[in-house]
Amino acid sequence: MDTGEAFHPFAWTAWLVAAALPALSTRNPLYLCLVLLAAGVTFTALSNRSPAARSWGAFVRLGATLWLFTIPFALLTAHYGRLILFRLPASWPVVGGPITGEALIYGFCSGLALVTLLLVFAVFNIAVDQASLLRMTPAFIYQTGVVAAIAVAFVPQMVAAWQAIREAQEVRGHRLRGVRDLLPLILPLLVTALERATQLAESMEARGFGHQIAEVSSGRRIAGQLAVLAGLGAVGIGLAGVWFWPERQPFMSLLAAAGAVLLVLSFWEQGRRVRRTHFRRWFWGRIDRIVLIASVAAGAPWLAALLLRNELLFYYPYPPYSPWPSFQPLLGLAIVLLAIPGILLSPATTRRRCADERSVTP
Amino acid sequence: MSVPAKTPTRSGLSRYVVEFGMKAPVVRSPAGLAALFLLAVLVLPWATMAGAQDGENRAALVVRYENGSVETKCVAFSEPEITGEELLQRSGLTVVMDYNALSGGAVCSIEGLQRPAPSSGGCSVQDCFCHCQGADCQYWAYYHWVDGGWQYSQLGASSYRVKNGSLEGWSWGPGDFSSGTEPPVVKFEEVCAQALAPSPAASSGPGTPASWLGYAGFALAAVALLGAGVLVTRRRPR
């Protein structure tokens, strides 16, 4: 199925980072509602273009289910607040005591942050299709990305095969009475899966997929793996040391930074060995630049607030704080900028990729 | 033989919620909804009145701050038992508690908002144990007066039940997860012979927001986004 994007996938990634920042950094319901509205505008614009937006309903339902967990949890375990709704008998072990409105608000806002994050990722999922995601993966984990993409593509095929096998067995008079009756269903499924995997492997081999990694001596390979191990260990020890031995903080942060540099270098060196050729180039045009600038303008104030003025993002309804949320106009304006990709997307925008219509599966 | 029809793919829980919500007769009719709303509005002012503060049961509270100063409060309550956190709240001190952790509330600061330096009262709720990093750990430790001595509390403030005649202590100082800094020795009669702690004014509600200008900005931004949504919807090819 061909969706195509009007914007460069890197521009969409910048939009995703800018839209996910508010959801990750605050529980203030005003900001989160604005992010939801901006994501909704973008989703509406995307659904104009492609019928692939059917999965949105599943994400919304999943989000609504999250509230079923966060609100009762907060209501029943936090008995603290000035706005008391009703009282449960105090003799009940965990849930006894006053049930307060502030706990309800807090549970709602926690769920709202999760739902916002989920829906922002859902919009990104609709905007960037699977093949583009795979192409965006860095070179050194490219093989893992291919495996993940194949697995994700196989799941609906296996679900369809399972249903077909069940129908075929029912027609033959098979009844599901116990666990042992599952065997006539699972065995054909396994065989089908193995057959399809072998077919796919053979076809990929015939297209030259196995020979992307340049051969190097085993010594160099082991050195690369040891470098990754050493880098991870240095980062871990450095981060733990910053916390545990505050008096040696400069040395520990230096260790963590050195470990990070070592990791980056070894990943880059491993990535250089992967040979990938792209015969359909992505086109970076003026409109992609506008989307990128809008995303950076939307994300920069939030990053600054997160690092420098964290108290602006603080929202805690319990006493002695107030359940009325605060609102900074600058941060609100930053969120409004997130709707720009949706406005710029018009159904008439032609796809800017290569003239080839069909996308090629990896 | 009939082929099983394809049911719409909906997870069991969400299907239950949707069907239950749609089928409840009260929720379905608009009159029912309006009646529910009116009921909530009428009940809420009654519900916000806090429970009776005066009563025949008394408990004493001893708080020791970082600089060694000690504050004592006597709290009266009418229920047979209250939790340690309710004792703190009814004493009139400004207490900040964190409910993020799964194990009930954790006391981040006592009177920490009034005092200028954050270290003398505690931590803010964003990092409840900000002075407990690594080896050097200072926090609010909970003690009960048991058999003539202070005993470190095995339960949190939300779980422990305070009875008539209890003496509870909160003390800021270095410690770890099994011990802290003990409060000074104070007798129950010394604390509760004096006048009772003035019951905190039955607050009528959460109060008003700090500034309405910010909310005007929010309304503006929301209207702008809704307008963008309408614009995008109109562009949909018919």
Helix and strand layout, with pairings?
The complex is a heterodimer of chains A (362) and B (238).
Chain A: H1 9-25, H2 29-49, H3 56-77, E1 84-88, E2 97-100, H4 101-127, H5 130-136, H6 142-171, H7 183-206, H8 218-244, H9 249-272, H10 286-307, H11 329-336, H12 340-344
Antiparallel strand pairs in A: 1-2
Helix pairs in contact in A: 1-4, 1-10, 2-4, 2-11, 3-4, 5-6, 6-7, 8-9, 10-11
Chain B: H1 12-23, H2 25-28, H3 30-48, E1 57-64, E2 70-77, E3 82-83, H4 84-90, E4 95-98, E5 106-110, H5 118-121, E6 132-133, E7 136-146, E8 149-152, E9 161-162, E10 166-174, H6 188-193, H7 212-234
Could you provide a short overview of the structure?
Chain A has about 350 residues and is mainly alpha-helical. Chain A contains twelve helices and two strands.
Describe what you observe in this structure.
The complex is a heterodimer of chains A (362) and B (238). Among the domains of chain A are: 9-136 and 281-344, no CATH class; 214-273. Chain A contains twelve helices and two strands; from the N terminus they run αααββααααααααα. Chain A has helices at 9-25, 29-49, 56-77, 101-127, 130-136, 142-171, 183-206, 218-244, 249-272, 286-307, 329-336, 340-344; strands at 84-88, 97-100. Chain B has two domains: 19-49; 57-193, Beta Complex (Ferric Hydroxamate Uptake Protein, Chain A, domain 1), CATH 2.170.130. Chain B contains seven helices and ten strands. Chain B has helices at 12-23, 25-28, 30-48, 84-90, 118-121, 188-193, 212-234; strands at 57-64, 70-77, 82-83, 95-98, 106-110, 132-133, 136-146, 149-152, 161-162, 166-174. In chain B, strands 1, 2, 6, 7, 8 and 10 form a six-stranded mixed β-sheet that branches. Chain B has a two-stranded antiparallel ribbon with strand order 3-9. Chain B has a two-stranded antiparallel sheet with strand order 4-5. In chain B, β1 (57-64) and β2 form a beta hairpin. The relative contact order of chain B is 0.14. The chains are: A mainly alpha (362), B alpha+beta (238).
